[in-house]
Structure formats: C-alpha cells, structure tokens
Amino acid sequence: MAQTGRAAADLRVDGSRLWERIEALGEIGQVLGPNGERGCARLALTDADRDGRDLVVSWMLDLGLQVTVDAIGNVVGTRPGSDPQAAPVMTGSHIDTVRTGGRFDGNLGVLAGLEVIETLEQHGITTLRPIAVGFFTDEEGARFAPDMLGSLVYVGGLAVEEALDIVAVDDGATVGEELARIGYAGSTPCPAAVVPHAFVELHIEQGPVLEDEGIAIGVVTGVQGISWTELTIVGQSAHAGTTPMGMRHDPGYAAAAIIVAARELALRFGAGQVATVGRCEFTPDLVNVVPSEVLLTLDLRNSDDAVLQRAEVELRGICNDVAAAEGVTLGRRTLARFEPVEFDAGMIELVESTAAQLGLSSRRMPSGAGHDAQMLSRVCPTSMIFVPSVGGLSHNIAELTERADIEAGANVLLHTLLATATTP
Amino acid sequence: MAQTGRAAADLRVDGSRLWERIEALGEIGQVLGPNGERGCARLALTDADRDGRDLVVSWMLDLGLQVTVDAIGNVVGTRPGSDPQAAPVMTGSHIDTVRTGGRFDGNLGVLAGLEVIETLEQHGITTLRPIAVGFFTDEEGARFAPDMLGSLVYVGGLAVEEALDIVAVDDGATVGEELARIGYAGSTPCPAAVVPHAFVELHIEQGPVLEDEGIAIGVVTGVQGISWTELTIVGQSAHAGTTPMGMRHDPGYAAAAIIVAARELALRFGAGQVATVGRCEFTPDLVNVVPSEVLLTLDLRNSDDAVLQRAEVELRGICNDVAAAEGVTLGRRTLARFEPVEFDAGMIELVESTAAQLGLSSRRMPSGAGHDAQMLSRVCPTSMIFVPSVGGLSHNIAELTERADIEAGANVLLHTLLATATTP
Fold this sequence. Notes:
2 copies of one chain form a homodimer. Chain A is α+β, with helices and mostly antiparallel strands.
C-alpha cells in the first residue's frame, strides 16, 4: 500500500544511477565528434536500436517489471499497483535517435521512468495504480515516416497493418520486416487494450529558453501547430552580365524577399509565432546566371491555431505579391499541417505544483517539437516536463543537459507519477 | 587592288551561305532539347571541338586562306592584302561552347568572318591590308579556367607554358595534352609575332536589350568590369520549432537580406549597374532546421570602374551590418575582379557609321559578358558588333538569332573590315 506524507514527500531519485544508465545506453550506436562530443546514431529498427532495446528490456526485467512488446514494437514495462482493476499511470518516450543525435533526446524520458520505478522499489513504496514505462517505436521518423509512428499506432491513430508496410528511406526495408529481423515484432495487440489513466513524459527542451531564463523546469502546456509549405518559384534564367535589372524575373530575389517577409511576419505576430526557411535551393546555382528556379520551404508554428491560420493566410498573400511584382510563378505544396495540441489542465497544474513543492523554478511553455506525449494526449490526460538543453542544441551530437537538471526533472517526474498513481 | 565607290558600297554577304555554315557546324556536338531545340555541347579540346575545328579549317583552306595554328591552338586563316608589309585587319571569335550551349555564341563571329572573305573572293575585291579570321581556344572556360584563355595567351597576357599546364575540370587532362591529342598543338609562336592593325568581332548580344528595343545592331563600347565575391555566412543551427525568433542567428535570413539589398543597390545605382546572386546554398538544408551555414555569390558589373568600386564598398558595408545585426559571421573570398574594358573610339565610330550607311538601327552598349575582343583590345584598336538574341537567351540550347539579324550583322562586319583594310 502507498506510503504517504513526510516520507514520500522527501523521496528523491538517485541522480548518479540515472546518469549511469544514460551513459550506458549512449554507448550503443555512439558517434564521436571532432571535439570529443559523444553523440548517437541509433536509427529506428537498426541493429543499434535492437541492442539499445535489449539493454533497456534487461533493466526492466531486473526491476521485476512485466514487459510487453506490441505489434508495432512498442515496449512497455509495468510495475503492478495495489488495485488490480486500476488503469496504469504511464510515462516513457523513445530510444531511437536521428543520424546526428544526442544521448538525451527520448532516452532521458525512458530511463528516468526506470529510475522512478527503482526509487519506489528501493523505498518499498507501492502505489494504488500500476506505473508503466514505455518506449515507442520510430519517434524520430528519421528512417520511417511519419515520426511518432509507434505512439500514433499505440493510440489507434494509424492501423498497425498500414504501419508495418511503411518503407525505410535508407534501405527500402519495411517496418514489419525490420521488426521481425531485430526480434521486436511483439504479440500484444495494438492499439493498446488498456488506456492509461494518465501520461507524463520527461524530455529535454531542445531549445534555448529554459537555459536563457535560468529556469529548471518547463511545464509543457501543449505542442505547437505546424504548417510546412514547399514553394517552387519559377523565373527566367538569364545572363548576369547582359540582362538589365528591370528585365529580370529572378526567382532568387523573390525567394529572398519571401524569407525576409517571413521573419518580419513572425516578429509582428509576437512571441508565440515562429517562422523558418530551412531549405532553399537555387537552380542552376551558378555565379553568373540568374536562377531559373528556386525551391524553398516555409515552417510556421504557433500554439494557437487561429493565429497560425492567420499567419498562413498573410504569408500566402505576401508570397503572391512578391511573385507578381517579380514576374515569376509560384507552385505550392503542403508538406505537413498539424493542429496545435493542448495538454490536460489538471496534468499541467500537477506538474507545475510538483516543481514548486520541490523548490524548483518553472515556467509554462509550449513544445515547439513533436513528442509521443501528443499522441497519448488523444486518449488520456497528458502533460510533459522539460529540462534545459545547453545552448539549445538538439539533434546534434553535442546535445547536453546538465546532471543537476536531469536529476531535478526526474524528481518532478517521480512526484508527478506518485501523486497520480496514489489517487483513485 | 581595292575596288572602291558604288560597287563596294553595294556589296552584301550571302546570308544563306552563312546560315548553312552555322547549321553545318552546329551539327557537331549537337544536343537536342525536349521541344526540338538544337543546341551544342562542344567543350574546348574535346573530340567534338576537334571535329568542329577540322570543318572550319577545311572551309578556310577551300577559301585559299593561309592557315596557322599557334602553340595554344588558336587557328588563324589569312587572306593576303596588296601591301605585303601591312599588318592584317583581324576578325573572329571562338567555336567552343558550354555544355548547354547554342549554335551562335562564338560560332557566328568565326563563320561571318569566312563569309566576308568569300564575299570578297566572289566579287574579286582585294584589300590593301590582309584580312585574318581567327578562332581562339577555350573562350568559354567551361573546361579549362580561365575563360578567354586562347586570346589571353595570343596577346601575351599569360605565358603559353603556364597555359599548357592548366588542368581540365572534368577529366583532369591538361591543355597541352589535349591539344596534342586532337592535333592542334601548333608551331606558330604565341603571343603572335604580328600585332593586328585592328580587331572587330561579331557576336550575339546574349541579353534582351536589342530585341526589347527593336534595334538591329549593338555598337559595343567596351566590356563591363566584373566583381565576383563568395560569402560564407556562419550562424547557429537550431530547431525550427523550439528556438524563439529573438534567439536565432540565422545565416539564411542574413543571406536573404543581402540578396534584397543587392537588388536595391543595383536599382539605386541606375542603368549601368547590375547585381546578381546566382549561387545560394543552405546547410544542412532541412525544412525544420535553422541553417548553420549559407554560401552565396555576389556578381556586380559596371562599365565605370569608379562606380563599380563604390558599389562594392557599399554592399560590403551592408553585408557587415546585416551580419552584425543577426549575430552571424561573414567569410569573404574574391572569385574574380576584372576592370572594365573600353574599346577604341575610332573603331566604335566606324561600326556605328557602318550600320547607319547600311540603313540599320543601332545603339551603343557595353558588353555584360567577356569576349575575345577584350583581350585583343590590349594590343590593337578593337570594337564589337552585337546582334539580337531572341528572348535574351544564351548559354542555352534554345539560343537563337534570326537569319535577318545575322545577315545584317555580317554586312556590318563586312563593311567595317573593308573600310579598315582598304585604308593605310
């Protein structure tokens, strides 16, 4: 039965034990940088992913968890609660990485979940509800699109049969083939038969805000809506020396004017709006030739879908005006459009009050990136805990979160899970 | 002896004969476009170039010219004059093309020279001075840098030994090896022992001005000065979703602001100034990543070197300001810097008055592109004759100059050469 009051309130994770697990898992698929950085290339369903999975499962078994593997390869380790009828409180994340990934993205959330379990074990604390720690298949989407694949299937957002047929961008293998090959084509049905009572995920921020403001904990209120558009601007290739400025139809100039306008729009819309042009490709890309064609992408994000829609409409109008003035044509393709996700108010408040009880500074913030939690939020009350990323770096072998910040985040996870799992 | 008066003034080239030679030479190295366009890929010192050279030399020999091949592969066919001591009047251009070249660029100037000779032969006209028709090696620079290589060596601007060691960008062969291989490593010393009395080159405009203004003949006053700068802008790669706008150091934005500023500067400086950003490369070029680095090139041209220098200084200052404001660093590399070339006032007037006497509309204009004539202008009075390019297209398989315009240009060449060769 649940230990309560003073003793439980004083409970803390073992930061060293957690750090050691992060180091150990980080050695699998490790890539070394020029300055001794230790990154990870553990792409979904590769041999390295299998080795990482095997290690985490061995830790789950060591902790006495009931381990299930479902049809899309999601792995869940469950510690029983005192009420055999109660739905589990769930935490977790993913252990796959991008090709130039770090040791913390995803891995932290899974290993902090195990550390919470071990802390409870060590102190003989039982909870009313089971506590489950999961890692979801192919969160990064670096090898199989879309990203967050495992958690999407877990909540019933995509049929498992469809998911198993998805083909890898690198070697053309399917999800199903690769799951079978690495021994993670599980027998547990997917979507999950039991819906979690609640879900909370600890993750690195992957941005610079917490570090910049000197804040320990980000209380994640939801995930920004995302709008990706690819523009193909076609003009008239021309000789850089012989073509007067007034007779040009230069898609490079049009692209530049659009990039400048996107920045201006984001600043005008204020703090909640970001706008990024990450891809820009000139054709034929020669020093003395006005380009014939330029491809660029627009990435707009906002937590407020009405504002995001307004940003899309305004920028669309600006692009049209720029193209008309330059005499170039504009092709548009929507690459992705996700509505913002709002996390559960009660779970947000719980994370916030837990941080305060632990004496940790916190701020509410949306997530700019996608996470498994946004899929789980479709089926149960969900929130996330962010910890600072040094220099805001992520998807980068130099990715780092300081040990003290990791320990703080894991303690917020511990007490958030404990509070949720000990109440009916 | 020279024929003068009415008969000479009425002399005209045979436009059909000239067109047939253009067609015949255009079949060598021919590339076909999707809409039946007939372009040329006859890169310098390739097998196709050899075949083209062989054909033109056979025509020179058919016309009874004295043909010399010099140490850098320049070929000159000379029709003797009545004064054995007089320096020749020279015309010509090049027959190498870029990989996606047309049938007119360069070829027109060489074949129009032959047509002038044949017209004189046909009418039994002798001139006081010899008339020489040359084609210079590797004008395009598409296979061996720098461009205008043959004419540069011809006028003593580069030692032939150095030129022979230049390595091809495609297969690593040297100029010397390739000249020997195709049988054009000639014995005539280079630079040329005899400096021409004057040089005039007929060429397509390669720009849209003549067509746009409905003018038949461009009287070329010189060649624009060229300034090429490569900028490497280094910022901070960052997540497009998690990095607030105010915390970005985005080299893509900086590049866009520079491209916009270059356009504004060119418009502010007025008609003589052009500014082009032809290359722009984002790294890592991913939709959801603020780029870490962007490379771009600036191509500035003006016929007035003082104004060109002012444009360079102003744009340099703007680049520095943009970089400082965005918190990115700027690396600069000068790729090329050529001062403007001014052609000879007397030769310019002669081309202009010749066009007028033939009843052809003309306008003075600088050349935005480099030509062999600018090398020859180092050693003798020089000018050029431009004819319209349909749609301003050049270095393009759809390159076209109408037959009537070609004939008009060849007649201006005929009478310009005749006037120069018949006066002491």
